[in-house]
Specification:
The protein is globular, with a radius of gyration of 13 Å. The longest helix is centred in the N-terminal third of the chain and has 12 residues. With 122 residues, the protein is mainly beta. Helices cover 15% and strands 37% of the residues.
Length: 122
Amino acid sequence: MAGVLLLVVASLPARAGIEPCNTAQMRIEMTTLLRHAAEDRPVNITFATRADGVKLPAALIEQYPEEITIILQHEFDRLVVMDDGFEVGVWFNRRYARLTVPFDAIRSLWDGRLLMCTNNQS
């Protein structure tokens, strides 16, 4: 079975010329990257918890009203990647939750320690 870790990724190194997460090219790259999330490298995803199409338990929205970061590596299940987002099962404090995250809600995505895209302006 599995769990999920929450992490502040601000200390991870960025790469020069980072693209926004909401471009057509980044959607293709995110789709490919997410399909390989079960490999030995983590995929860190920060997304807006109240964005259109995001589905997660109300308690998580209460706890993380703006955004949340999840790490997909070993402990998650039933990852379904679609053209416009993904669904995944994760555990928060030993409670299972099924998340739906549209690509438009993603604020940043890291492949291991490499920032792939960001919609943050800082």
